[in-house]
Amino acid sequence: MSGFKTLDQLTEDIDVGGIVLIRADLNVPLDDAGAVRDATRLQRLLPSLKKLSEAGYRIGVLSHFGRPKGQRVDTMSLAPVAEALAVLLGQPVSFADDCIGAAAQNALTALREGSICVLENTRFHAGEEADDADFAAALAAPAAAYVNDAFSAAHRAHASTHGITKHLPTYCGLAMQAELDALNAALGAPERPVVAVVGGAKISTKLDLLGNLSSRVDTLVIGGGMANTFLAAQGHSVGTSLCEDAMLDTARAIMVEAEKQGCTILLPRDAAIAPAFAAGQKAEMVSAEAIPDDMMILDAGPDAVRDICVAFDSAKTLIWNGPLGAFEIEPFDAATNSAAQHAAALTRKGQLTSVAGGGDTVAALNHAGAGEDFSYVSTAGGAFLEWLEGKTLPGVAALTA
Ligand code: AMP
């Protein structure tokens, strides 16, 4: 990765004891008792926090939490997340009742060198989402430097991801750096051939993504409900399957464009079908050209999985977004499980760089027991999808501005 200032540079530029604000993504799911249900995002933040703490900076953590829409909403306070962070870090973490003004200033200046304070939800102020210049200046006021370690919030030009960078020397955190390195290895300057898997429910939500990928990858595997629309566009009957009739021309245009770009589109040759998407169904395997009128496609079939695994075998890089079938209900998780496990095995052997993320992908790969072995699994959601669409993310662009 180049063009960004790293934490190593921060330690050269900023005196020990200086106040460093780090934009994190503390927007983690809580259970009814207020305990953190999935701490993955917090875990990924620990390396930057530990590095800055060990270097002797006084650290303020900025984050949004939920959608309070510019109002103070008690259930969206970051206080419980600060407690969870302290447990994971194994060191005390203080909490400031506001992210600007005297509360923030006092809490940050009271920190000892190497100590950490979580500042209250940035979205309690309307200036956050409006990227308001005065609010950004108020956020920056107590600090000597700013670090962005929240790739998952980088698709938004908000005061804490964008405006603040106009007021402080700006650095890239270690988690952000790892994410950008992984994304660059997958799509920026990948080892070829590159295979992309795009699954999930609908084409209509993934048009930009399909357009960008088909111009950049060698093979595009289309799976999940959206494959049905492509099969229908090729003139096959898809029975009662999920199918976007209004998108048939679009699907045909994507296939024509992909061919022009030299990208092979791989559609399922066969399918697992059932009368309904419900628990306790038995899957029947049929050719994609012979879907009965009263049945629906709920997963790719075994021949389709073989085709996908062959494509993986000759690839050097894999990008994966979306399940190959309705993986939440057995046995329609079979194709996603097999293909993900094969990709994981190739990655373990060092044959494949595999990067996945967006929507249900993380859940689908973890369900397959394959997530751990992928080279990189992004938990960034919307930011990951916008990056797959080829968009410039304001929070990333601001790191170099
Ligand atoms: P997305 O959020 O667009 O990535 O879509 C994920 C959803 O697509 C999951 O909830 C899957 O159950 C669903 N899905 C995948 N394949 C199918 C299919 N053949 N029929 C209906 N839903 C599907």
UniProtKB/TrEMBL annotation:
Recorded hits in Pfam families, A to Z, give: PGK
Major location, coarse class? cytoplasm
Q: Where is this protein found?
A: Cytoplasm
Catalysed conversion reaction = (2R)-3-phosphoglycerate + ATP = (2R)-3-phospho-glyceroyl phosphate + ADP
| Keyword terms, alphabetized | ATP-binding, Cytoplasm, Glycolysis, Kinase, Nucleotide-binding, Transferase
| Residues reported to bind ATP | 206, 328, 358-361
Which class of enzymes does this protein belong to?
transferase
The UniProt record gives the binding positions of substrate as 25-27, 41, 64-67, 123, 156
| Record carries keyword ATP-binding | yes
Under Gene Ontology molecular function, one entry of this record is: ATP binding
The record's SUPFAM superfamilies line, in alphabetical order, gives: Phosphoglycerate kinase
| Source taxon at top rank | Bacteria
Q: Which GO terms describe its biological process?
A: gluconeogenesis; glycolytic process
Q: Does the keyword Transferase apply?
A: yes
Name one cellular component (GO) term. Answer: cytosol
Summarize where (2R)-3-phosphoglycerate binds, as residue positions: 41, 123, 156
Per the record, the pathway is:
Carbohydrate degradation; glycolysis; pyruvate from D-glyceraldehyde 3-phosphate: step 2/5
Residues in coiled coil: none
Report the EC code(s) recorded for this entry. Answer: 2.7.2.3
How does this chain assemble? Monomer.
Could you say which protein family the record assigns here? Belongs to the phosphoglycerate kinase family.
What the entry lists under PANTHER family is as follows: PHOSPHOGLYCERATE KINASE, PHOSPHOGLYCERATE KINASE 1, CHLOROPLASTIC-RELATED
This protein is called: Phosphoglycerate kinase
Q: Which organism is it from?
A: PS1 clade bacterium
